[in-house]
Amino acid sequence: MRALGFALVGTLAVTAQAKKPAAGGATEKPIIAAPAGAGAAASPARGHAGDVKGRGIGVGAELGEVSAVVARVPIAGELALDGYLGYSLPQGGVALGADVVYILARVANLGTAQLDLYGGGGVQFIDAGGPSGYHCHNTPWSYCHTYADPARPALTVRVPIGAGLMLQSVPLELFAEVAVGLRYLLAADSRLKTGEAKSSLRFFGALGARYYF
Predict the structure, then answer these.
(1) Domain for residue 178, yes or no?
(2) If residue 60 lies in a helix (H) or strand (E), which one and from where to where?
(3) DSSP character for 11?
(4) Is the torsion defined by CA of 137, 140, 142, 148 positive or negative?
(5) Number of folded domains that form the chain
(6) Which end of the chain has the lower number of beta carbons within 10 A, N or C?
């Protein structure tokens, strides 16, 4: 019995020591270490976000049909507006156009770059050059001269498809684009070239780059 009494007294003493408050009356609480990096919000650099809207506005240039200054303005999510102003060598005139494009697929993440496929639709206005040549008159007297018809405006509805390679180190996108369109000449029939129809299929292709701000 004496041994049992000593054991009971020892147990009560240990319990009282465990419940004793720390100096100043504050009860000691265990310290839980926060996970490394907690509270640090991830902020992706502009131009590296997954959707088009997170990249900002892209400005650059392209060479091909047409060769132009280009810009991409985000609309929402994967939707954007592509605009361009340049010159068309095959059509011989200044071209102004805009396409609404959508990111169709994220093809691959290469670690240092992301490859996207996009497509859409838009319109192009061009002040195309008219026919020119050398012409001779026999009446009332004989003489020859060169001639050039005034420029002929044309409107093209086109469908572009392209691939963009977005770099991760800098907000720069390299792209290649092809398009097919239906062009309609707005000029009078008298300004058509020999055998030329007022409507015709046109094909486009260009390589370029855009820097995002």
Answers:
(1) yes
(2) strand 58-65
(3) H
(4) negative
(5) 1
(6) N
